[in-house]
Amino acid sequence: MSAAETAKSVLRRLTAASATERILISFAALVLAVVVGAVIILVSGRVTTCQTAATTLFGTGFCYDPVEVYLVLFNGALGEPFLVNSPGILKPLNPDWNPLNFGFALTLKETTLLIFTGLSVAVSFRAGLFNIGTQGQLVLGGLATALFSFFVAPLLPSGLVGGLILIPLAVIVGALVGGLYGAIPGALKAYADANEVITTIMLNFIAAQIAFVLVSEFFGNPDSQVVETTPLPDWATLLPVAFPQGGDFSLLALAFGLALVVAVWFLLEQTSFGYDLRTSGEQPEAAEYGGVDAKHTTVTSMFLSGALGGMGGAIWVLMVMGKWQAGVPSLGFDGITVSILAGNNPFGVVPAALLFGTLKSGSLAVQFGTGVPKQLVGVLRGLIILFVAMPEFFRMLGSAIDLEPDRETVATDGGRLGGDDE
Amino acid sequence: MSTTTIDRLRDTELSYRATLVGGAVSVFLLIALLGLAFPTSIWGNFLAILTSRSTLSSALRLSVPITFAALGGIFSEKAGVVNIGLEGLLIISAFTAVITTAIVGPEMTVVGLPAIWIGFFAGVLSSVLFSALFAVVCIRFKADQIIAGLAVWLIALGLAPFAATVYYGGVNTDNLGTTLGTWTIPVLSDIPFFGAFFDADPAVYMMLVAVPASWYVLNRTAFGRHVRASGENPKALDTVGVDVSRVRYAGVLLSGFLAGIGGSALSLGLGQFVGNNQTMVNGKGFIAIVAFLFGNYNPVGAFGASFLFAGLEAAQIRLQQVPGYGVPDSLIQTIPYVTVLVVLALVGRTRIPAASGEHYDTGDDNR
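ok -> structure tokens follow
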């Protein structure tokens, strides 16, 4: 058997591990995170003070009721299709509910952004590279988009034609800058053997500071007290279609994100580059032996991952803000959760992003409706990652109640967790 | 690996470090030379900052969390568990220390112990509990150590601001109005410049004890031998009848204990926990990882590297106060991070413990 064939068979064996099992693990992890989250809500309900207890368990009053919190969360994320404040277990439908509502727009906005960052993380994880730097790549990519659009917009005819030319170019600029910033830790890893986890985290700090300096010192909006760039004209941004104005959600961006999902899947699964990328993630020695240029693959994978992160930043600027503003939300870190939940599978990123988008958007409703701080999502983010990382726990649980026989350990070093088949 | 390759590796490592240390010394000499030649220029300012006692004392204070986290990282990684969650341990202990002190009441004394010290120990305890969770996940449930470590970081990053918001209504805690204070040793503290060593935060003294103590434990005791074997050659350790899992649990718990001291000292030194963005820990846990890599898993070397990074931070803070040259503060703030990157790029090829990051199956599991 030739070296390439060896590598191929190893790859097949690794990826053939049961897809259903991996999906089950993601679900179990999610359920467990929600349960632990509920406990945290209960405990914090004892610490805080309130007039009347929201719920009473074992004779003790708690200020927050976890069931209500999750109900409000999902209801809020969908724009209140149910009247949760009415008494009883079964909540009546809200007669005024319209699918094109503000809450749902917020959910889809988060989902769209998380598709980009989730894909970014997924590509690098599949290559066996822990790119924690999507956040920094997104920050700089977004800034590049904002500045490019700001300087080029006056040269173009305003209106639809200008937008059709400018918006794609601006996204490409964001992707390039994010990609180059991602290539730095790639090159450091390939040529200096510097651990990419540490370098990408350091580069996150550096990106935030550089962007801050560039905007506060050189490219800031002179009319603003905040560190931000001058707002772009409406025609140069992605305006909401069908959804309400304030939701900052554009169907175009979502469609672009979904197209990228297919493109990334195609690249990973159907091209020889994707094959090299996956093999170097799953079996680096076999890949080298099979003639893969590991250094080159590392740098290219990181460029690609960074470019996806940069595009996420571009979409954040063009769809949500209409400008770049300091204090970029932690979309890059959320992307890690999305990718891990999706088993680093491009198609899995879509439901994972929708789920996490729901959590993020619903957390605002939770804060308004129940007083539980929206930072709860940050806790859930970590818990989900922790539980997905320990499949052995669920296997032990599963074999204890005799559900399924043991399988091989899931390879998290670039192996995909929730993939279908080869 | 043959002896010659090991020797060669050791030689290249040494030359890397020699270059770096030599580089740092020559940069300092250059600044000193320029500063003495042109006392009124920027270089004069640099020299004044680098040789001032207050820079030394803030460098010592700033190196406390980094050094303790680095010492913890050494024990964990030497035992064979890569602990990338040090940042999370610092965050959780920093927060717990402040909130416990606040709940007890900053000016209260319980069984002769001031509230702030109760907070300090509570912070350490929280970090130990968190590391215990991490240890179980990694050792018992064989989780990927990098991902589990990231989870520890992200949980702490979410939990601390969440709990602060529940209790205070915002991500920052209120200021306690009290700090760990300083312990001043009479006479010795009057020495110019080096007197900063004897007029410092209690945690600085702890650090100056912990560094040689860690070195001793690691290199001169049976436990240290077990820890090193557990990371290098767990099979051999198993063969002589030592429980590898137990040694690894001990290594990880010890890393939680040490990082907890660093985190508690960080927040109680200020009297407040700051939870914005990356919280007040702001990457110190990750810098600690680079510090012990740079120090080649040697506690003394790790302290040297931590002190270098902290010194840059201290100089950077002082530099911001010097008027008259137009470098923006935010850019100066990147100096420590950039240095960490450069260091990592130069010493990236550290030889990590052979079995670090791998699960060890004793084979006597019931499955």
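The longest strand of chain B covers residues 109-110.
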